[in-house]
Automatic annotation (TrEMBL):
This is Prephenate dehydratase. GO terms for biological process: L-phenylalanine biosynthetic process. CDD domains: ACT_CM-PDT, PBP2_Aa-PDT_like. Residues 206-283 form the ACT domain.
Length: 310
């Protein structure tokens, strides 16, 4: 049986994202070569890093972890684990609308403490200031743990998920809570390196690069994509942890490693970078950016020139 670790405990948005992946797989809309997503065993892990480490250690086949929030930006523990840890690869992704529930056994106006995972607290700060100004925010270990803290009377209210509120039998006194409407978070399924899923024509490719420490190195690396018409959709810098002021860069681009333009860009990057880590090519239906141009017409034209045709 396929084992999938996820950032737990039960009731978190990450478990909800994993359940969504399994539902997509059941409908034939998602797959990871060699693994049964539908019948997979779900294994809770205490952190994103722990979930990914379970894959590296062989305790799980895949891991489901958040990688980017439309409100808070990159999930840096995930980026760092993928960028510096044992080699892992992204095989699939999904995204989830993120709106919270306030779970409590007392009315909002009577709550003196509200438990919240720090990332969640940042996404509902304004709502809490307006609707629960008297409540002190108390850090929770996760979104689901905030509901458990209410159930066990450690706090009066919790910023949590609807799934966790039901799981711990705590009433939802407010739903759809978010400072930013339509907030979403991307989640990825990661495993040990292997063949990428087949090209679909609506794909994403991710790499981590370490460029030489000289003027223009990053610009030259980015130019390898631009010159080939490959759209970069995300660039993040992360400290290398070895020398102060030195960084690696995470690139996401539109396209698949089997797209000629993307393949050419990756080969060129390998020549100019000190190190390049391939994080995968996978389907991303409806993702941002413009698909790379198929160079087929220019290849036909060039072959004609070589044959003496004008």
């Amino acid at each position: 049986m396929t084992r999938i670790a996820y950032f737990g405990p039960e009731g978190t948005f990450t478990e909800m994202a994993l359940l969504q992946c399994q539902d997509l797989a059941a409908r034939g809309a998602m797959s990871v070569p060699g693994f049964d997503l539908v019948g997979a065993e779900r294994i809770s892990a205490p952190s994103q890093v722990a979930a990914l480490q379970m894959v590296s250690d062989g305790a799980a086949d895949l891991a489901c972890v958040p990688i980017e929030s439309s409100v808070e930006g990159p999930v840096t523990p995930t980026l760092d684990a993928l960028g510096f840890g044992a080699p892992l690869q992204i095989f699939a992704e999904t995204d989830l609308a993120v709106a919270f529930s306030i779970a409590s056994r007392v009315p909002l106006a009577q709550a003196r403490t509200v438990g919240a995972y720090p990332v969640a607290a940042a996404q509902v700060r304004a709502w809490l200031a307006v609707n629960m100004p008297q409540a002190q925010v108390v850090p929770a270990a996760s979104n689901a743990a905030a509901a458990l803290d209410v159930a066990e009377d450690r706090v009066d209210a919790g910023v949590t998920t609807a799934l966790a509120a039901r799981m711990y039998d705590v009433p939802e006194v407010a739903t759809g809570v978010a400072d930013v409407a339509d907030a979403r978070t991307r989640f990825v399924l990661c495993g040990k390196p292997g063949p990428a899923p087949a090209r679909t024509g609506s794909d994403c490719t991710a790499v981590v690069i370490d460029v030489p420490s000289r003027p223009g190195s990053l610009a030259l690396a980015m130019a390898e994509f631009a010159l080939r018409g490959v759209d970069l959709t995300r660039i993040e810098s992360r400290p290398k942890r070895t020398v102060f002021g030195s960084y690696v860069f995470h690139f996401d681009c539109v396209g698949h490693i089997d797209d000629p333009a993307v393949g050419e860009a990756l080969r060129a990057l390998h020549r100019v970078c000190d190190e390049l880590r391939f994080l995968g090519s996978w389907p991303r239906p409806g993702g941002p950016g413009t698909a790379p141009v198929d160079p087929g017409d220019s290849e036909v034209w060039f072959d004609g020139l070589r044959r003496g045709e004008r």
